[in-house]
Specification:
This protein has eight helices and seven strands; from the N terminus they run βαββαβααβαβαααβ. It is globular, with a radius of gyration of 17 Å. Keywords: NAD, Oxidoreductase.
């Protein structure tokens, strides 16, 4: 397993299934974890409630992290919000809120922590996107648009920070078996049929797991991936090569 001994790592969305598993996986690899979410997470050496859509909230969390753990060398942005609505059903205000957390949150984290990484000549950002960033996603208009924006930010930021030795990568999961995904099936008339249909979209024949995602994030943030930057890596059971 790649090691992150004594690295200070910020992980957002740490109260969710993917974020919590990432906290545990990174801690097992030797990292010191600052866990952030809208509600205080259960994981992390330092666990903080933080609204990534609010400048003051992010600034306050950043100050606490520096004071208690030191400057982060790795930031994993796994937090996201969504709206279940088509483009016509949504509103500009809803789009703005989803974008402000999913993309604006990443920008706030970069502006808070990248300067110290640049000064040190090393660091990593890992941004959790979605295959919905490059496929159409009817009924998830704001979410899909924000993930497309996050993919573009990943490429741009990677170019901006590469000369200073800071790497930036993304991952694009398909359906990950989390309580949030199960809840989306529960909203439909036949949840079991919806689950079965969703599984069939993945050629490997199963949903992904939070552990699958955490393993890829750990690799990308470790020295094992030292020559990878600007990539958004699909983790989708083959869904992106056989969209169905």
């Amino acid at each position: 397993m790649p090691r992150l001994d004594n690295e200070v790592v910020v992980i957002t969305g740490a109260a969710g299934a993917i974020g919590a598993e990432t906290c545990r996986r990174f801690a097992a690899a030797g990292a010191r974890i600052a866990a952030l979410d809208l509600r205080q997470p259960d994981e992390g050496e330092l666990a903080l409630a933080c609204d990534l859509g609010d400048d003051a909230s992010v600034a306050s969390a950043a100050a606490r992290i520096r004071a208690e753990l030191g400057e982060p060398t790795i930031v994993v942005h796994a937090a996201a919000t969504t709206e279940f609505a088509t483009t016509l059903e949504s509103s500009p205000q809803a789009f703005a809120r989803v974008y402000d957390v999913n993309v604006g949150g990443a920008v706030r984290l970069v502006q808070a922590f990248a300067p110290a990484m640049v000064a040190a000549g090393r660091g990593n950002f890992a941004l959790v996107s979605s295959i919905n960033g490059y496929f159409g996603a009817p009924g998830l208009a704001a979410y899909a648009s924000s993930k497309g924006g996050l993919d573009a930010l990943t490429r741009t930021l990677a170019l901006e920070l590469a000369p200073q030795g800071v790497r930036v990568n993304g991952i694009a999961p398909a359906s990950i078996d989390t309580p949030l995904l199960r809840a989306s099936f529960a909203r439909l008339p036949d949840p079991a049929a919806a689950l079965a249909k969703n599984v069939l979209r993945h050629p490997l024949g199963r949903l992904g797991t939070p552990a699958d995602v955490a393993s890829l994030l750990l690799f990308l943030c470790s020295d094992e991936a030292a020559w990878i930057t600007g990539a958004t890596v699909p983790i989708d059971g083959g869904a992106s090569i056989a969209r169905r």
